[in-house]
Amino acid sequence: MPQLAQRVGRAKPSAIMVIAEKARQLKAAGRDIISFSIGVPNFLPGDHVYEAAREALKHDSGQYGSNRGAEPLLDAFLRHIEALGFSGYGRMNLSIGIGAKQVLYNLAEAMLDEGDEICFAAPYWTTYHDIADIVGAKANVLHCGPEQNYKLVPAQLEAALQRKPKVFLFNNPSNPTGMVYTREEIAALADVLVKYPDTWIVTDDIYNSMVFDGIGYHNFVFAQPELRERLVFVDSVSKTYGMPGWRVGLIAGPESVAKAVTTLNSNHITSVPEVITAAAVAAFGGPQDVPRAKCEEFAGKRDVVFEALTAIPGVVCPRPQGAFYAFPDISVAFGKSHQGTKISNDVEFCAALLEATGVACVPGSAFGEPRAMRISYTCPTAQLKPGLERIQAFFAQLS
Ligand SMILES: Cc1ncc(COP(=O)(O)O)c(C=O)c1O
C-alpha cells in the first residue's frame, strides 16, 4: 500500500470548520443557532463589482493569464496601497494568489526550507501554524496574553529575532483578537526589526480597512523605510470588499520575492481567471463606500459586543479596535459546571455553550490561547444582542 507524504500527516483540519460544521448539523436538526464562529464578512461588494464581472464575461478570452496578475489589477492594487501609505512600489514588486491564504503558503514555500524557523505572536490565525507545519518549518510562537492586550512588545520580538529566524510573520489588525497596533507601537517594533537583517518580515494585514477609533493603519515600512527590502505586505479582497469567495490575494514586497511567488504561481495556479480579475480591479479601483460603511457598522457592533462581554463577572476582554473579532478570556469558567456538564477548558466551554444555547464560538486553543474564545460578530445585527445575552445567561448559570 503506498503511503501519503509525511506533510499530510502534519496538516490538520481547521478547528474553526469543526465548530462551524457542528453548528450546521444542529441547525439542520431544527435548533435555533447563532453563529459567531466563522470569520466571513457577511456582506457583498457594491454593484460596480458585479457589473465589471458581467462585462468581463462578455469579452472573456478563456485563456491562461499572467502568473503575476493582469496589469490592470496590478495597477489598481498599486493605487490601493499608495492610498494606504506605501510609496515607490511598481508592478515588479507585486504578485498575486488565490486569496491571502494561498499567497501566504507561497511565501512560506519561497522563504522557508525544512527546519527553518518562523516566529509569530499568539493568538495567531490558525493557518500560520498549519502552513509552517506543512512546509516543515519550526514555529516559534511568542505568547501575548490578555495581560498585554494580546500585543507583541519590543522585548519579546528582540528575544525572538536573536535566534535569527528566517521569517517573522505579523498580523495587524489581528484575527482572532481584533487588536490594532498604534503608530507608536509599530514604530517601536520597527526599531527592533531594523537590527536583524537576516529575517524576512511578512505583514498579513488583510483587515487594514477595518480599523476603528481613528487609530489608522500602520506598517513597519512607514516607520523604517529601509525595511522595504525584506518586508512583504499581504492583502486580499476577501474582508475589505466582502469577497472571500472570489479568492484574490496580492503581495507588495521586494522584487526577488514577487518574482519567486510568480514562479511558484506558474507551477501551482498559473493565473487568476479574467472575470475574477475584472471584479478585483473594480473593487480596488471603484468607489470605496461599501468598505467605509462596513467599517462603521463593525465599530458599532464592537461596542455592543465589548459592553456585553465586559459586563460578565470575571471575563476579561481587551478592547478590539479592528477587524470583526473579540477574544474574551473566559478562563473564569474553567473548573465550573453548566447544568451538570463539567467545563475544564476552552473546548469544553464552547461545546457546552453551543449545546445549551445554540451559540457557536471558536475555542481559543485553535489560535494558541486556550484561556479564550473567539467571537466573530459579522452576523446580522438582529442576532447580535440575543447571542450575547445567551452567553451572559450561560455564565450566570455556571456553578
Ligand atoms: C489574518 C488572516 N489572513 C489571511 C486570511 C485568508 O484570507 P483569504 O480569504 O484572502 O485567503 C484570513 C482569513 O480569515 C485571515 O483572517
From TrEMBL:
- The residues the entry assigns to the signal sequence are none
In short, the EC number is 2.6.1.-
What is any one GO biological process for this UniProt entry? Answer: amino acid metabolic process
Q: Which SUPFAM superfamilies match?
A: PLP-dependent transferases (SSF53383)
| Alphabetical list of Gene3D superfamilies matching this protein | Aspartate Aminotransferase, domain 1, Type I PLP-dependent aspartate aminotransferase-like (Major domain)
Molecular function GO terms recorded: pyridoxal phosphate binding; transaminase activity
Q: Which InterPro entries match?
A: Aminotransferase_I/II_large, AspAT/PAT-like, NHTrfase_class1_PyrdxlP-BS, PyrdxlP-dep_Trfase, PyrdxlP-dep_Trfase_major, PyrdxlP-dep_Trfase_small
Q: Which residues form the Aminotransferase class I/classII large domain?
A: 32-391
Question: What positions belong to coiled-coil segments?
Answer: none
Pfam families from the entry?
Answer: Aminotran_1_2
| Class of enzymatic activity (EC top level) | transferase
Q: Which residues cross the membrane?
A: none
PANTHER family noted in UniProt: ASPARTATE AMINOTRANSFERASE
Question: What is this protein called in UniProt?
Answer: Aminotransferase
